[in-house]
UniProtKB/TrEMBL annotation:
Belongs to the enoyl-CoA hydratase/isomerase family. This is 3-hydroxyisobutyryl-CoA hydrolase. It comes from the Eukaryota. Residues 49-390 form the Enoyl-CoA hydratase/isomerase domain. NCBIfam families: PRK05617.1. It comes from Hibiscus sabdariffa. Its EC number is 3.1.2.4.
Amino acid sequence: MQSLKRLVTSRRRDSLIRCKRNLSSLPINSSAADDLQNQVLVEDKASSRIAILNRPSSLNALNTNIGARLHELYASWEDDPNIGFVVMKGSGRAFCAGGDIVSLYHLINEGKIEECKDFFRTLYSFIYHLGTYLKPHVAILNGITMGGGAGISIPGMFRLATGRTCWLYICYLVFATPETQIGFHPDAGASFHLSRLPGHLGEYLGLTGEKLGGAEMISCGLATHFSHTEKLPLIEEELGNLVTDDPSVIESTLEKYSDVAYPEKISALHRIEVLDKCFGHDTVEEIIDALESEASATNDAWCNSTLKKLKQASPLSLKVSLRSIREGRFQTLDQCLIREYRMSFHGISKQISNDFCEGVRAQVVDKDFSPKWEPPSLEKVSNDMVDQYFAPLSESEPNLELPTEQREAFN
């Protein structure tokens, strides 16, 4: 066991060095003292550490610095025998709204593609680290949790959803994967997690970017526990007083304050039979045809709302995302992350389409909410365009490097 731990430590140290190298190559200006250290705060507890994402004005959006800082902290805590478990939460009204897409938008338009790649490499490396973490991990999903926010929480052992949580791609208080609405694809390991949801719920969430509340998250397995928000101070206090590295002790504390929650009547989870019938088809075109037939026969508001979301999304992103989720069913987390890294690189390169920058411009920067997708319709999205997203990178472009030998050692 000790030799295995030494192997893990060595692999992670190499990964951490790469993260630091990526970070050190970025220009640091006065605002980047945005206080770099303060973007992730740390609270020391009896036998645990709390990592607090601390960019509340940006809904704790992730950047390269946060990814590298988390990687460094988690590696040091994993090696510390006095630390039994780790907790992650966000400051303000969000857990984490995903990647800082506005910064990525400006970097791409300034031609700083290498800095964008550093971001994806650093983030994906941390997500893999969390997926193989040797100590219990509790993510407190209180508030908006989107895209990469799901990526840095779901691989951990425990996910506590609250009455404020919405998984957006997945309200207001959000858990979601909204990438197709900005011309991108579910990333940060999303193709792995979405593909493992019941039936074809993952395709529905990934293509529409629909929101899930905390009750829905616990119902479909995205969260392990659910508690009302007002109980959080009690939960955090009790977790902070624990002296343990035993997952069962941590779980007992979470269960002590757990509440029973049921999805609202309007939830898609109450339409799972229709959802599976429509989203189980092989192509986006067939999914839309099935929804239109269902809407015509039943005049169901859910069908009409779902169709509207699909027709607002990038046609290319819809096809790429569907294929990604379907491939994720047959891949491990590390395989999904490596593939999604390639897809992300192709998505920001503008060599296939400018949809990502156009989507961010329309939805977040200019906020005219009228993106001009390229191509503008599903019928104009060729199979070749979709294939290019999944193609290997050129010989001059390194793939995402993950210490996958660790996982093999555990299996």
